[in-house]
Amino acid sequence: MAARNRPLRWLAVLSIAALAGITGAARAAAAAGSPGRIVILMVWDGLRPDLVNAHDTPNLTALENAGVRFARHHSVFPTLTLVNAAAMATAGVPSSDGVFGDAMYLAPALDMARATAIPSVGYLLHDPLNLENTRYLLALHDARAFADGVLTLAAAGQTVANSGGYVAVLGKQGPTGMFDPEFASTDAAGDGLFVSDDIAAPPAVAAELGSRPPVTMMHPESIAARDAWFARIVTERALPAAKAASDAGRPSLIVYWQHNPDLAQHLAGLGTQVALDAVAADDRNLGAIRKAITDLGIAGRTDLIVVSDHGFATVKAEVPLARLLKAGVLKGDPDANGMVVAHNGGADLVYLPARLEPPERTALMRKIVNYAIMQPWCGPIFSDDRVSRPTHNRNYRGFIAGTFSERAFGLGGSSRSPDLIVSFREFPDESNQGLTGPSNRAIVIGPNVEETVANHSEALVRPIEGVIYSDAPHYTTGMGMHGAFGARELHNVGAAIGPDFRRGYVDQLPTSNSDVAPTIEQILGLKRTSGASGRTLAEALAGERLPAAKARPVTVSARAIDGDRSVTIAIHLTRYDGRDYPDGVSIERVVHH
Hints:
Layout: H1 6-11, H2 14-21, H3 24-32, E1 38-45, H4 58-66, E2 68-74, H5 81-90, H6 94-97, E3 103-104, H7 112-115, E4 129-130, H8 134-139, H9 156-162, E5 166-171, E6 193-196, E7 200-201, H10 203-209, H11 220-247, E8 252-261, H12 262-267, H13 273-295, E9 302-307, E10 313-318, H14 321-327, E11 340-344, E12 347-351, H15 358-372, E13 378-383, E14 404-405, E15 420-424, E16 426-431, E17 442-445, E18 450-453, E19 465-470, E20 480-481, H16 487-490, E21 494-497, E22 505-512, H17 516-524, E23 552-562, E24 565-576, E25 579-591
Parallel strand pairs: 1-8, 1-9, 2-22, 5-6, 5-8, 10-19, 13-14
Antiparallel strand pairs: 2-21, 3-4, 6-7, 9-21, 10-20, 11-12, 12-15, 13-15, 16-19, 17-18, 23-24, 24-25
Helix pairs in contact: 11-13
């Protein structure tokens, strides 16, 4: 990633610095003295497309009908918040942007003798680190860890600001930091604005804003109140500042990341009143932002993009993968000493000990795969092929029988790549009736028997389809989770409205969170991020020709055999413009007689 020049970033005069990095519409606007474009990216964390309707989300429904609805929008796998925040910010995938999960084991990519000396975070690096923490992201921006930051591609906030534009990033801690973690430091914010749950910058603004409304997980209305507070900062501070920048011919980017409905769905469960109320509260925030755009008279220069980072499903049972492996197939195996499992809900990242030579590493991977793939809770497994001949991009099978290649799915080839990624199984058409609700049985898959624990979900008022096995302690049967390679988690929400988008258009081509940043860069007239994987959503832009190319379905499969049992896992993709968009999985388990 290119070096960053922070002191000059915010002090640069537009005519010198901005015109060097701005192209197209933005350069013409600056040269002619016309207003700069404003783009607002509003993220509803964890919103599923089937929860958007005229009753619960009238504002989002109206936006979809009047502007563009991306009917086949996709999350990036693993379907986790930080993975998709990085994808939106950089147009990358994990292998290129460096983010593989919300919790990552970073030791294999670090010089631990130096990294452990980093204040506030170094002592935590011996275990998987939860990166949904702005202070951790800032701390890792250190020569003893990642000198250019956790991201290995330039982020959208960084690109806009480096070109002399105005940037405001507000909302949930962790994903907001992905849009340029160093932007949150007090010496970098300049005339921009960064306000998350844990950090606000610049200092004068932080003091002026006062205390954030407190959040108590036992009181879901407090989460909605925090999101509404961030929305008010958008309408009362960020939008007026963006208007002023626009008046001066400068581009602006506002990112607003809501906590809900993710937190409500996690804690209460999909289809509960708490979760439905959270969706409605998010929709009111959208209505307030659209009203502010109109009241400020900037609708003719403001594009509003609404996406979710991932879909959601209901927990069917907890699968404590590390415990199951250590109690069973790896018991007594000295090569497994030092193995680390980073549990991420619907997908676990497995890191094998660095001391292992390739033959021992391969043997241990094969032992783990042969056990997991035969379990009813297991979905597709992705294997890192660094110990064998690198896999071609179109050879989807991993070098361990029954697995898929990490490289082929944008997950391999990095020093941060796990040795294995185990996606738990999703049943997209199974209802959460009988799972969600405190009176229902909650299950933990033990080494020998199913264990029963208290069900912590709320009463179900609207059954929702889509259930998964999950490895997330404290999230019981009936609560909500994501992260897996399942249709309910891979398909998420995408919509847009504004002068640069078509009106009343349904985009039936496959689109992805990785396509967000290139589209923003196109609208703002900025240079394309180097190393990006996403595409500009040209078919949705006003004045662009509709593409002649067609999308086509592709299915790839892997098979594992164990005695008289076999498992065939088929991954369904849509291929368009040289890119693969994952749609879901089908699994066939057979006992041969």
